[in-house]
Amino acid sequence: MSGHVLVETKERVTRVELARLDKKNALTQEMYQALGDALAAAEADPQVRAVLVHGKPDCFCSGNDLKDFLERPPHADASPSWRFLRLIAGAAKPLVAAVGGPAVGIGTTMLLHCDLVYAAPNARFQLPFIPLGLVPEAASTLLLPLTAGYQRAAELLLLGQPFGTAKALAAGIVTEVIPEGELLEYARQAARALAALPPASVRLTKQLMKRRLAQAVAERIDEEGRAFRERLASPEAKEAMTAFFEKRKPDFSKFS
Ligand code: COA
Question: Ligand 1 pocket check: which of 62, 109, 244 to mutate, most ligand atoms within 8 Å of Cβ?
Fold first, then answer.
């Protein structure tokens, strides 16, 4: 288990906490591995009936670690990040998320695979794949147009700018906005409520709701993954990520 991902199972709920605050909970490959392990263990443990994912009140997740992307880009779809995506997309047990502060990149796209997403008013979502010279992942090119409608999805994915809870609600990314001080407890209660219900009924209902898209989601994760890894090696992506660490605006003027 990574020291930056804390996992605890209590009252039939597995709580997964992102805990790398000095880097705004940016996810390294080790953290994806730990997240994937936690999801796989929760799925396999008959005592577990729901999973709760959260960060700190002022920070959910700033997305993939950009230093990792520059120095150790994932080369294959067997990498811990793609394993995590497949696990979260295919989870049979219900997933609850509590989001406060930044939720960037996979910090937002993972929410499309959660069943209940509670966000505090300070939540700031962003899908900055294109500004980073990349393409979206986690089947968000399939799911977001469905939940948000094409134009809303196009605005969020093509421009890649930050947005607040009003847009996240309208786009179907968030279930409900909860005051900051109550967020984690509210989400925890929801996870406990799910855990108290007949588990087979919960699992079957989730499966029935997801079945129509399950195959298409799995295929899109792979398809996006291939394009994503190709774009990661592009000079545009290198320029965007280097600019982030140099705290300057990227210059895309020389690219065609
Ligand atoms: N990868 C690596 N490091 C990151 C990171 C990321 N995704 N996000 C933040 N950090 C680091 C910063 O480099 C900084 O490190 P330093 O203290 O050593 O300089 C630290 O975390 C704090 O980040 P900072 O940008 O100062 O915080 P902020 O509150 O001003 O902004 C964010 C928070 C999340 C809006 C901003 O950090 C951001 O946009 N991060 C990049 C998000 C991103 O592009 N993710 C990839 C998506 S595919």
Answer: 62
* Per-residue pLDDT reduced to its tens digit, 171-218: 999 999 999 999 999 999 999 999 999 999 999 999 999 999 999 999
132-158 confidence digits (pLDDT tens): 999 999 999 999 999 999 999 999 999
Let me know if residue 188 belongs to a domain. Answer: no
According to DSSP, residue 131 is labeled T
Question: Is 187 part of any domain?
Answer: no
Domain that holds residue 164: 1-180+199-256
How many angstroms separate the most distant Cα atoms in the chain? 58
Q: What is the count of structural domains for the chain?
A: 1
What residues does 151 pair with on adjacent strands?
Answer: none
CATH number at residue 171: 3.90.226.10
User: Which H or E element spans position 14?
Assistant: strand 13-18
CA of 65 to the centre of ligand 1 (A): 8
> What separation in Å is there between the alpha carbon of 63 and the centre of ligand 1?
9
